[in-house]
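In practice, a research group might receive sequence data for several interacting partners and want a quick structural hypothesis before committing to experiments. The following worked case mirrors that situation: the sequences arrive first, and a predicted assembly follows.
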Amino acid sequence: MAHEIKDDIYWVGVNDRRNDLFESYWPIPNGMSYNSYLIKDEKSALIDGVKGGFTEDFLRKVQPHGAVEDLDYVIVNHMEPDHTGVFPELRRLNSGLTFVGTEKASELLENFYGITQGVEVVETNDTLDLGSHTLEFVETPFVHWPETMMTYLREEEVLFSGDGFGTYGTLDGGLFDDQLGAEKYFDEAVRYLSNIVGAYSATLQGALAKLKRLNIEIIAPTHGPIWRDSPDKIVELYDKYSSGGALPGVTIVHGSMYGFTKKVTERVAQGARSTGLQDLKVLDASRTHPSYLLSAAWKRRGLIVGSPTYESRAFPPISNFLEITEKKKLKDRIAGIFGSYGWGGGSAREIEETAETLDWDLVSSPVEFNGQPSEDQLKNGFELGRQVAEAIKN
Ligand SMILES: Cc1cc2nc3c(=O)[nH]c(=O)nc-3n(C[C@H](O)[C@H](O)[C@H](O)COP(=O)(O)O)c2cc1C
Ligand SMILES: [Fe+2]
Ligand SMILES: [Fe+2]
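A structural hypothesis for the assembly, expressed as tokens:
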């Protein structure tokens, strides 16, 4: 496959088709790409690296474009090891390399890899002249870590955006959105956003504002396709899902050990549908990885959570879901709660605590029932679903 993005700019990344989990947590059934880029000029620069364990594959990609020993710069947009694992090997092969990154990145370079020599610290608006290419740096802290920046290639109007505008999924035999099918990546882009960079929605919005002054022809992120045909579409997607612009749909996340809570789930779903709601997703927290629960909830404005009581708190898979929504700051949902118990109860209380923390707007007090739900309690479940679905229409 042709690896050229523009004259003298090459993709030298790798496809990860062997790990099941990204960050040892998030499922990647479609794999993942770690994109790295090489600019050849009077001075040559590598933009980001790849994960350790892919060094051989990576060096094979670089080799046709010149020896690592002749590289001048490594631009460090982001220090997470999925992009920096190869740095020690690069430094071993080329002791004259200069690593270019933010102040914070220089601290991480030392802490992660003991790299202290040949480090150049840059700030927003600083530039690096490679000959006929000028790199301009834009600090974008917390997209995805505090040290993060993006790099803009002025002459060609290419934005090397790091994790921003990235997505899960390998690059199968092509590099660009128009080759690979942009639409195919959108669902996974939302899952990636919610899982990885969504927690920093406010800073993502800040980064988007900073980028407005740049003319961007191509977005080249560290994960997923290079956006040359429709960079505006991935920017729109990131803008929408980092600004609370979720869809008018409802996600029901529930758990149930023996089926009592599940009975109410069915009624809640029917209640939501009774309003004419089209976009409804029911997920069982015991059988669905939190990555997908979070992504489904991230996508839709309405969220209803149901859980039996388990040792005076929520059922563990539901507790786990609630914890991840707090860690990833899934704010501002229109929400409902239902919960079952055998004696003292406690599941609904735990969901309420999360709702409070994340400013979820509850349409009513929780629908609670002892063991087998009565006909009245089933009706209350239906009503809960109906109310949440009604509320998101307005
Ligand atoms: C392992 C386990 C722990 C439980 N702990 C509590 C508890 O601490 N307090 C309580 O009120 N009910 C407790 N229950 C009872 C369940 O919450 C109750 O039977 C509920 O209706 C089960 O709903 P489900 O069939 O949807 O799982 C527990 C049940 C199990 C199996
Ligand atoms: Fe990252
Ligand atoms: Fe990354």
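Before designing any experiment, note the following. The CA atoms of residues 314 and 347 lie 4 Å apart. The chain has two domains: 4-241, 252-393.
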